[in-house]
Amino acid sequence: MQLVFKDPSFSYELLRVLGYAASGGADIGECLSTASRIQEGDFESWYTEWSKTAERVEALAAASLARGSHQSACEAYLRASSYYRSAEFYLHTTPGDERGLPTWEKSRSCFRQALKLLAYPCEEVEIPYEGTTLPGYFYRVDPSPTPRPTLIVHGGYDSTGEELYFMHAFAALQRGYNCLTFEGPGQGSVIRLQHVPFRPDWEAVVAPVVDYLGTQPSVDPDHLALLGVSFGGYLAPRAAAYEHRLTACIAVDGLYSFSESIQRYFPRSFAEPSQTQEQDLEALSLAAAEALMQRSITLRWAITQGLWTFGVPSVYAYMKLTSAYTMEGIAGQITCPTLICDGEHDQFFAGQAKKLYDALTCTKSYHLFSEEEGAGEHCQAGAILRLNQEVFEWLDEVFSQRR
User: N or C end of the chain: which has fewer CB within 10 A?
Assistant: First the structure.
């Protein structure tokens, strides 16, 4: 799908934020007006224009709040949060850009302002984790202690805890589910403030989250699902393979081998390191990465984002580390019902979702979203309502069998 921009990355990121109009994270006119002012392929222009829009909408929110118009203020703060997230998106392609952290902080601040005005009760939580904590938001259908089915949601390679509200938490609340969204290593504030990079054994991350929910009277432990978004399509199934307190797992979209999806862009010698000296591979990987980043905005962003969130000093180190992120020999250990989502035109992980589905031995479902229905992009960007329709109808059916 090409939207305003010819560049696939700019087009996809515009579709991503525009799609949140369905969940209160955008207004269509604001997005299209902003996009019309952005120069094709220009990161600085992208940052400048999204920042201007975010600042203007944040000011609208503050004015509404001062007038006592709480609903209007809530809506505007949510949109401003989403626009600040979009403004920050490409800043990490230039390591050390000092605007990244304050722009992200504005996104988080606006979101937390909105939470105070949200119709549903929501609590900012800190989940104990290996000597520190993981940040999360625990959304509840109502203030009562009535045990309810609960959905845990985490992101992937770049999504923030705030963005997860627009993706799935809003839909969970509308359907009577509590929802806990959280950020783990490599994500959100955990990488930005705590500087903790990704780890492949994601069960060590999810277990403390499940422990926390076990202390909450409003959570039904027999109806507890985990959903992972994008790169989370590897992380969530990996956790489910070892964390058997989960009663369902959803991958949006499924990912079997992260290294496979990355290495297809690099010379074949990386898959056969014994054929080449280590120092040669270091030089080759750097040269290959520089060439790729020159001709593709998507790859420039993906490589620089990976170096940062995986906490590695070189492209070759990153390439080596990704090999640990695979479901080979692990997928068969998942015992809970699992839904694998896929996009007909998934430009990041093409073929990976079906490969993961085929490796599963548990009760499983596979749903391929099509271009014709406007849902064929990675993680069904621009089709959030359609995605959640399938996710929650599947989850309703799975949970109904446990009553």
Answer: C
- Taking alpha carbons only, the member of 60, 164, 43 closest to residue 100 is 43
Cβ atoms of 227 and 337 within 8 Å: the answer is no
Structural domain of residue 288, as residue ranges?
Answer: 260-322
Residue of 51, 64, 230, 257 with catalytic role: 230
Does 323 qualify as catalytic in the annotation? no
Tell me the per-residue pLDDT of 156-170, one tens digit each, with 9 for 90 and over. 999 999 999 999 999
pTM above 0.90, yes or no: yes
Which of these three, 288, 322, 356, is where a domain ends?
A: 322
CB half-sphere exposure, 291, CA atoms < 13 A: 9
- How far apart CA 242 and CA 32 sit, in angstroms, is 44
194 torsion bin: left (phi>0), alpha (psi -120 to 50), beta (else): alpha
Is 2 part of any domain?
no
| φ, ψ at 368 (rounded to 5°) | -100, 115
CA distances from 317 to 2, 99, 234, 247, 322 (A): 34, 27, 20, 36, 9
Q: Which whole-number Å values give the CA distances from 21 to 2, 14, 127, 160, 216, in the listed order?
A: 18, 12, 30, 17, 32
**Considering Cα of 54, then 85, then 108, then 100, what sign does the dihedral take?**
negative
Backbone angles phi, psi at 131, to 5 degrees: 85, 0
pLDDT in tens, 205-215: 999 999 999 99
Q: Are 335 and 360 in contact (CB under 8 A)?
A: no
Strands, DSSP E only, in 186-289?
219-229, 248-252
